[in-house]
Design brief:
alpha/beta; elongated; single chain; Rossmann fold; 3 domains; binds uridine-5'-diphosphate-glucuronic acid; N-(1-d-carboxylethyl)-l-norvaline Dehydrogenase, domain 2; eight-stranded mixed sheet
């Protein structure tokens, strides 16, 4: 199938590359010419494990192309995916101006049938607006449109695997033709018939559930899924606070809860809270759209409030130990919003560093992948070459992102390098008893 992807952010780039990987002809369009040149040259604008090889191979084998010319992308395609950004406005609402603009241009430029698929995370009822826009700006004599919603559930850091081996594929359609095209497009993933670039043998054999709904329900499935996962995190973080007060261990509580199949272990990791460009903004946008429709989603406002209190609380705990932060040296391990990405957007680690700097502390930061991007964000921090340099002479260390490489470090060396062996383990990465027996003053989250 010939596919055009508009927008080469995380979702667009991964979706386009993976659709090429399973055999389609894909043209990815972006109006950022510099980014397009980078991609045409086979280089990556983001760090995402495994994606660079897939892009390079599909470029070489002519299944994937990048262009800044939207008409070129649309002309060649039957299906056009809208994957542009929906950043937050001041009031928390999603800014849909890029979605509207792309829909308008698709209307104006199309000269034959197009299936227009919204893949960006958008508030419910956006599909209806896309349809209206296509009708207003399209030439009904030349072109015909179906609109569909096909939300994406990939996670940064494991995006390729998530796209190729999803838990489910959701499509919201109003016309059987749209359902047929999308089913055909995803057939290799549903039936697991493609040659997997990640696993030598496919990890699962059952077909992937393909859920067909109306457009509004598909839009809600995306927002509701992210909001539910965020709720689990804020829930366990509140339990962690209680654990600290009563002397229980949140890791054990989460384990015991998670063994109940109805609850599950996932997303019950207590810590500095959730970040990234999805949960915080999607939560706010979901609350906003609900409000506009006359529903006060109080539960989610509280989820957000609990999350926003995580970093200030960590700062308070450091102050309880260090008294004054001014001129104290604080090592910070991890800057990305989670491991295996260089994405800093809404990163709790960056919020923490900013607050430490505002208190007058001297921050020595280290992250395996996000250092370059961080320089612009926290310019007055000292960027260390490795995790050891970050703790040298430090009065405390904060583990802000749970990169695997931190687990294997020589902790005896870490302790010797620090001025005071105080660790605030913001992601409960280390074994509390082991750390204490080594002589660290160890503070975890909810333990
Ligand atoms: C999230 C969803 O998991 C994806 O399904 C969705 O497609 C994506 O948003 C999106 O809407 O595009 P992502 O933001 O990449 O994916 O990252 P997650 O792995 O979900 O983590 C989000 C944040 O929650 C991170 O800051 C992470 O550290 C935090 N988290 C996660 C916890 O604090 N505790 C947990 O138990 C799990």
């Amino acid at each position: 199938m010939r596919i055009c992807i508009v927008g080469t952010g995380y979702v667009g780039l991964v979706a386009g590359t993976c659709l090429a990987e399973i055999g389609h002809r894909v043209v990815c369009v972006d109006d950022d010419r510099q980014k397009i040149e980078v991609l045409q040259g086979g280089r990556m604008p983001i760090y995402e494990p495994g994606l660079d090889e897939l892009v390079a191979r599909n470029l070489r084998e002519n299944r994937l192309a990048f262009t800044a010319d939207l008409k070129e992308g649309i002309d060649a395609a039957t299906a056009v995916f809208i994957c542009v950004g929906t950043p937050p406005l001041e009031d928390g609402d999603a800014d849909l101006s890029a979605v509207e603009q792309v829909a308008r241009r698709i209307g104006e430029l199309s000269s034959s049938y197009k299936l227009v698929v919204e893949k960006s995370t958008v508030p419910v009822q956006t599909g209806k607006w896309i349809e209206k826009t296509l009708m207003v700006y399209g030439d009904s004599g030349r072109s015909e449109f179906d609109v569909a919603s096909n939300p994406e559930f990939l996670r940064e850091g494991s995006a390729v695997i998530d796209f190729l081996h999803p838990d489910r594929i959701v499509v919201g359609v109003e016309h059987p033709r749209a359902e047929r095209l999308l089913r055909e497009m995803y057939e290799p993933i549903i039936r697991r018939t493609f040659v997997c670039p990640v696993h030598s043998t496919c990890p699962a054999t059952e077909p992937v559930p393909f859920l067909v709904t109306d457009i509004r329900s598909a839009e809600l499935i995306k927002h509701a899924s992210n909001a539910f996962l965020a709720t689990k995190i804020s829930f366990i973080n509140s339990v962690a606070d209680l654990c600290e007060l009563v002397g229980a261990d949140v890791e054990l509580v989460a384990k015991g809860m998670g063994l109940d199949g109805r609850i599950g272990r996932a997303f019950l990791k207590a810590g500095l809270g959730f970040g990234g460009f999805c949960f915080p903004k999607d939560l706010q946008a979901f609350v906003k759209i609900a409000e506009r429709c006359g529903h006060d989603f109080r539960l989610l406002r509280e989820v957000d409030r609990i999350n926003q209190a995580r970093v200030p609380q960590a700062i308070r705990r450091l102050k309880e130990q260090l008294w004054i932060l001014k001129e104290k040296v604080i090592g910070v391990w991890g800057l990305a919003f989670k491991p295996d990405t260089d994405d800093l957007r809404y990163s709790p680690a960056i919020a923490l560093v900013k607050q430490l700097l505002a208190e007058g502390a001297s921050v020595r930061a280290y992250d395996p992948k996000a250092m370059e991007k961080a320089r612009g964000e926290i310019a007055s921090a000292i960027f260390s070459r490795d995790p050891y340099e970050a703790v040298s002479g430090a009065d405390a260390l904060v583990v802000a992102t749970e990169w695997r490489e931190f687990e294997g470090l020589d902790l005896t060396r870490v302790k010797t390098l620090m001025r005071r062996p105080l660790i605030l383990d913001g992601r409960n990465l280390f074994d509390r008893e082991k750390m204490r027996s080594m002589g660290f003053e160890y503070l975890g989250i909810g333990r």
